[in-house]
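User:
I would dearly like some help making sense of a protein record. Take your time, and here it is.
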Amino acid sequence: MEHNLFTPDGHLTDEAFDLLRSDAADELSRLEISEHLAFCDDCLDRYAAVLTPGVLAEPSDLLRPGIFARIRQKSREIFVNRYLSAGVAACLALTLWTAGIFDFSSALERLPAIPEGDRLETLTETTAGVTNALTDSLRAFFDSIRLRGVYFDEKK
């Protein structure tokens, strides 16, 4: 029997929630529902409301400031972890780009023109040449960095 899991606008139906709660859904339906719940906050909120029909317990007035402080602290940590790592990655990419690491023009000039014959072998060789040029550029960049106090005397 085929079940109607999604509404025309792409959200989960009440039937999908009932199937999920009662373990009556087949494996493919459960996979589709769980994948949708992983990305759709609206349906996840609706599913949480289906699972917990009553009002959730409110913290007492003595505990409320500490709980909200922990929630704010955790949200700051999540924000910093998510956006700081993205910012560091972007800065590293820009640094490597401005340093000329991603300049493959000389490596591409050395590669032969693609003949009409065996394109897969030529594509493999071209990919290997480009990756070798990238690793050589990265190696040269990191070899050019002087680590003060590690390999050399800082006082000199």
In short: The radius of gyration is 28 Å. The chain has a mean pLDDT of 78.
